[in-house]
Fold:
Amino acid sequence: MSITKGLGPSIFSQMTQLAEEVGAINLAQGFPNMPIDQKLKDCIAVAAQSEQHQYSPFQGIPELRQQISDLIFRSCGVRVSSSEILVTTGATQAIFTTVQAMVKSGDEVILLDPCYDCYELPAILVGAKPVYAPLNEDYLPNWDLIEDLMTPRTRLIMINSPHNPSGRVWQEKEYRALEHLLIKYPEVVLLSDEVYEYLAFDHPHYSVRQSPILKERSVVVASFGKSLQATGWKIGYLSAPERLLRNILQVHQFLVFSVNSFLQKGIANYLEEFNPRNVNDDCRMRRDFFTSALQSSKLILLPCEGTYFQTVDYSMVSSAKDVDFARQLARDVGVASIPISVFNHDFRDLKHLRFCFAKTEETLSEATQRLCTL
Structure:
């Protein structure tokens, strides 16, 4: 029997389809509905008219990798060589490729629950064992529990900040605790999902690259889809020390070989003038608009320090399971969301829903008016 038998469509596909069927406002799947930067579109248009249409170097075109290196330096003050960067077909491919390169059958992979749904499957596909460490109710790590779950077979820990689905952003103390843990387990590799790195609102994003201890043990995954607000392009990158990157490159060349060539060229030309602060300010404004409009609702707003997701507690409205309530909300109120329990391996239900606020003010205004009728 196939190990993927019974997986079916993801909750994101299901809720988007439901939103289309019932005419609900789609605040479920995490994609913006605003226009992207015109300068970025112009750069892509110029690149599309060039002769950049054949296979690119499998690690990524040199100009883009150098621009990524420069962007990392501007953002967090750490120099990462272009030789330590791999351009990928989105962050999900980067995650799958890293797990396939770092983990073998019989190894254990620590996942912090709830987590993005693509973390678990690549470990299962290589015959590794996912080990789940539930986050605290405030969606921050329980380091004592994580340490208790570590064994000699632990090979990889996957972390995510800013965090999807909760919107929490780790502060430096979390990374100090992680350093302390990994010093005890020198064979363990860290996969840090930082796709929302430029969407930290209330305190700065701290990258594992900024820790000398963690940097040499880490693969950092990033997404142009999130950073440039162009999720449909499916282009991202990862950075890692060359000793880790060697194995990742071996898998990558047989998985996708290389990434869309003219998109790479266009993004490379755009990044020189790209200012992540503009994306951050725009998303913070949308968060503030969304949360302010929901103040008069019966929904309890949980901390949203980053990403473009607001998590709410609906226990004052309904006692229904979150999956059922999310479907009811789409059908009866006309707003689609994502139930948080689907991010937990045991479907632990805290009566929490996730809404995407990376939408136009018109969309958010209509959605919040509907939600305030609950």
User: Anything to note?
Assistant: Residues 276-293 form the longest helix (18 residues).
